[in-house]
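Q: What residues go here?
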């Protein structure tokens, strides 16, 4: 199955990215699917067009984290979105057939306009990013897109654009299906959504000392004010990380010990570190290796771009032909 997915380059990634996307990407890759994973640098400009000086470094740092997390360029095609001009060409073609109302009804557009007040979002690129997203997927005739349940409506807009194009011109695009991914909800150390902008993220590149310091400050069960108070793991900010990284015996001990107050939050954090540090240490070791070989990163992106370019060129030739843009 042809799998297509991308990620906005924000620099170094955190464990939320690992558990929410990269672990599933690796699974899809290792199952033998034809995977295309791209650095969505055009998308980065939809909200940060005034601040692009860090973009090249962010691109590189993100790809390093992908590779360290198990994305294999021998199995998957890894490339830079902006290096292939057909992304912009197909976006322009799709923008001609996409009703404005479809974009204005996008719930994410409305939410971000309300929540993000420190950036200028009054631009065509931000309103039309779902059209660019559709172009990203359909340029490679993606059959499936790994998404969480909350992202299914975004993909449905891509499917609507697919149907409109196919019905208007010719049936050349598949309707991409959502490949639903189950991922634990991992909050930041302060209990809010994990984000580098909040300063509450555990990064894949963090040192052992950094991880230990962050875990020690993690917000736990808010109702457990004193050591002798019983707690509820299901309302604790720490517990989802135990479920993800700790062995079953530790998880059982945490649940029992927390509810009975046999263990305190400090004990619980020590148990988590025993499970978390080795796993993140493996990723950091691989990350350090790739970071020391920047030419290898360039080679991987160049090879991926060449492979993606051939498919993109063929697709755009088909689009131009059925739209009578070429004779």
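A:
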């Amino acid at each position: 199955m042809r799998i297509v997915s991308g990620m906005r380059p924000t620099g170094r990634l955190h464990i939320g990215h690992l558990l929410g996307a990269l672990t599933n990407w690796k699974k899809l890759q290792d199952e033998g699917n034809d995977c295309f994973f791209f650095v969505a640098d055009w998308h980065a400009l939809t909200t940060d067009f005034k601040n692009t000086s860090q973009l090249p470094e962010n691109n590189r740092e993100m790809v390093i984290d992908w590779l360290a997390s198990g994305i294999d360029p021998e199995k998957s095609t890894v490339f830079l979105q902006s290096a292939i001009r057909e992304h912009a060409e197909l976006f322009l073609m799709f923008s001609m057939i996409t009703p404005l109302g479809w974009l204005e009804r996008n719930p994410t557009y409305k939410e971000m306009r309300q929540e993000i007040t420190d950036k200028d979002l009054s631009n065509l690129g931000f309103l039309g990013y779902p059209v660019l997203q559709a172009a990203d997927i359909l340029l490679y005739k993606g059959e499936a897109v790994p998404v969480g349940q909350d992202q299914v409506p975004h993909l449905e807009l891509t499917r609507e654009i697919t149907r409109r194009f196919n019905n208007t011109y010719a049936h050349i695009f598949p309707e991409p299906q959502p490949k639903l991914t189950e991922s634990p909800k991992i909050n930041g150390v302060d209990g809010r959504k994990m984000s580098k902008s909040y300063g509450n993220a555990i990064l894949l590149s963090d040192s052992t000392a950094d991880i230990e310091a962050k875990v020690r400050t993690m917000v736990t069960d808010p109702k457990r004010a004193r050591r002798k108070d019983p707690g509820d793991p299901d309302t604790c900010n720490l517990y989802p990380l135990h479920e993800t990284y700790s062995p079953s015996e530790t998880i059982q001990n945490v649940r029992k010990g927390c509810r009975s107050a046999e263990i305190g939050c400090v004990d619980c954090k020590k148990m988590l570190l025993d499970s978390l540090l080795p796993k993140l240490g493996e990723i950091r070791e691989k990350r350090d290796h790739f970071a020391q070989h920047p030419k290898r990163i360039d080679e991987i992106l160049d090879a991926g771009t060449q492979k993606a370019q051939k498919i993109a060129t063929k697709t755009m030739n088909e689009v131009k032909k059925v739209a009578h843009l070429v004779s």
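A: Context that may help when evaluating the design: Strands lie at 2-7, 34-39, 76-80, 144-147, 177-180. The CA atoms of residues 137 and 252 lie 42 Å apart.
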